[in-house]
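Example record

The entry below shows one chain as it appears in the dataset: sequence first, then structure tokens.
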Amino acid sequence: MWDYTDEVMNNFMNPHNTGFIEDADGIGEVGSLSCGDALTLTFKLGDDGKIAEAKFKTFGCASAIASSSILTDMIIGLTLEEAEKVTNQDIVDKLGGLPEQKMHCSVMGQEALEAAIANYRNKGKAEPEKDGKVICTCFGVTDVEIRKVVTENNLTMVEEVTNYCKAGGGCTGCHPLIEEIIEEVQGEKANVEHVRPIKPGKMTNIQKIQLIQQTINEQIRPALRADGGDIELIDVDGNNVIVAFRGMCAQCKMTEFTMKDVVEAKLREFVADNLTVEQQKKD
């Protein structure tokens, strides 16, 4: 479903500099398997003090692999001072762009590089503690990390922050705190209200069903689960989406409101304007 550039696909299908340098001068590890993305970046310096070799190992999607691959190409031949100036936007530009929902992959690459350089400079010293206070407990993202992506990428919405560093992508309980950080950084420019995303154009039936399921998984289900409920996609008949509520939602008197003002609204926002939602008829 993602619209990837040729450069992204080339670096995904034929990634450069994969592996691990055993006698590396710097090692950077970010992410975790529990969060769905993990990256290890290693580099070796040459006699001239420049990065002579860089390799990566990642567990992640096509965007994570492509971002890591292009990053290693970018830093080989640079001094550490030059390498630490590489931003996530530089990675995105080299790839010819990334889907908004995959921008966190470029941020992960930048963070791995920063961690590897810090590892080299801190050899023989105790590992420094992570800066800041954890705001997003689902993904372990701190206020310092959120402030950094907001500042460097001029973010003004919670959804954008989630795209760049995953903060707020789980239970959504940290959204008010993320809004406060955005307002602090952006001041009056901040617009923390949800904006209408760009929906895809003409889709096949299979593509439409896949996007409906993805929207349910990412935009609807987390909110329902926070209140002890859940939702299941039963069928898609033309533009009519048939769902069943589970858990607390199945017993709630407000299901009609939830169906129209939450489920249908989100599906129209992310998939197509003409979608309608109904509950599965009980036998």
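Notes for this example: The beta strands are 26-32, 37-45, 51-59, 134-136, 141-142, 229-237, 240-247, 276-279. DSSP finds eleven helices and eight strands in the chain.
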